[in-house]
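Appendix B: complex inputs.
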Amino acid sequence: MHAHRSIVLALTLAAAVAAPLRGAFAQEQEVPPPRQHWSFAGPFGLYDPEQLQRGFKIYREVCSNCHSLKLVAFRNLADPGGPDFTEEQAAAIAATFQVTAGPNDQGEMYQRPGALADYFPPPFANEQAARNANGGALPPDMSDLAKARSYERGFPWFILDAFTQYQEEGPDYIHAILNGYEEPPPGFTLPPGAQYNKYFPGHAIGMPKPLSDGQVEYTDGTPTTVDQYGRDVAAFLAWASEPKLDERKRLGFQVFVFLIVFAGLLYFTKKRVWHEAHHPEAT
Amino acid sequence: MSAHPVYQPRSSFMQWMERRLPIAGLIHSSFVVYPTPRNLNYWWTFGGILSFMLGVQIITGIVLAMHYTANVNLAFDSVESIMRDVNYGWLLRYLHSNGASFFFVAVYAHIARGMYYGSYKDPREVLWILGVILFLLMVVTGFMGYVLPWGQMSFWAATVITNLFSALPWVGDPIVTWLWGGYAVGNPTLGRFYSLHYLLPFVIAGVVVLHVWALHMVGQNNPTGVEPKTEKDTVAFTPYATVKDAFFLGVFLLFFAWFVFFIPNYLGHSDNYIPANPGQTPMHIVPEWYYLPFYAILRAIPNKLLGVIALAASIILLAFLPWLDTSRVRSANYRPLYRQFLLVFFAVVIGLGYLGSQPPEGGYVIAARFLTAYYFLFLLVILPLLGLFETTKPLPNSISQSVLRHGAAAVASAPPSGAKV
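Resulting structure:
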């Protein structure tokens, strides 16, 4: 049919106008983060509890010194579809943190060990204290970090991503940042207190290199490399930002099966009903 | 399979009711026996899909409102608590945020169908204008909804869009201050946006009633653009249109579910997971994807006031299509030139959408100017002139004739079942 030909023609024209613009006018090329393999990618991908536990260990021993995780509660550590800690383990973890409570009967705030219902306490009392301790830079809260970071995908990838269900830009970016520290290229002047990072926009990052090989001990034989640390902590942060992912994908599959069957039945009903209208003589 | 043309209440209760409030009779005449052209294609199912999506948005929205807090210090965290602590809160929110996108997918398909088949022409002008009003209401409602999570993009989109009014001479700045309820986007702004975001969907529902009423006065257009003449040209709404709408709604929901369950944040912007910070402007402020073509038009014009006028005109001009289009033939299937220009117009709108997502620099702006020029040239020059000079193809005498011609062709290629024609 002609309709199809002219639609294709029109779209080709539009693409022909748009495509060269990108190359000709794109600003300084950022280095895209290398794609990692994630257990939670794709329609059936779910979190790997062991990886989340390793990632949590890194958060606790390294990141939590500067980064808050204020939207996550200790009870979440024992939620289904998460790091799969038992309730006792989660309570024990909570008890190792000191949280501010009160006021008590004397009107004083006081410190007590954390409980399941408590949220992860922030490392700094307020933004000013955090900036003061970090050379003026503010370490962002990590609760939503894996969903709050992305990078430019560009044409045609941003369209194809809808079909391949690529949703892990944030974790890829976090992994890349942790592995992106290197010597600045000659001629690149770093502002005082900043580090050079290959994947950070503008390359001058305020955070000193947080992880080195062998820094965090793993008991399950997983390699203790920055590459592995980066993947594990990014997976943990992906869970922290999207704790209901497992539930969402499981329900999504059921909804899909239902809708396919339901739409299929409706299709045959429609064919049957319309048969008469298409062939009025047959009745 | 034909139902009785007039509603006949069977039970004594319904007879009693019908004498007092003939609502069952109204439903019967509007959605059961209502005649629809027999040649409607699947592009005609988007009206039903839009009604369904309005229902989805209102129901999920009402439940979300039970858990949301409209306060600049609490809004972001209240949305996060919906995502993390409310039972199926993540589902409600993803249905609602992606539902807005799919509402716009459906409305763009619906508008494109109206333009392709000339559905705005006499006697459907009021029906069409009500549709443009509905689209405007959707734009306003969607924008206000995007502000509510109070992320970075929420805040900065609110700032940029409300600031557009400051381009108006004399009254501009007072209007902006009045909209904000202060001297910057802040708590009063969030409060009123929330209130209006809850109100406007019901206004939309009211205008939808008028839209359907106007539709039932003049009847549906159809792919030939030839009005139904005899009973042979139409079929009853139920079961024919109902089952066809239901099937395609199912297909539409499959696409919707793909986004809701598997890529729920694909259509959003990652910056909106960063709490609003008035002290830090994001690198690129972009609206939701469904506003991008209009955003590109705004930024294509170097003068702010003219840009705002062009933005408003790009939507309001659509209301004048019945008079801008001078051709007496409705369907683009019989207007070869209009068809080519219109398909280019659609491609231009998609191109503007892409340019709207890019930074307003260099070649992007130049391309946006060319496409903007075509947008207005098409509506203001090409459309009025085409009607005067275009040679149209001969129209079929009736809908049933055009259907039978297709039917005959199909029969010719399948001889065993075609004996009766």
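The longest strand of chain B covers residues 35-37.
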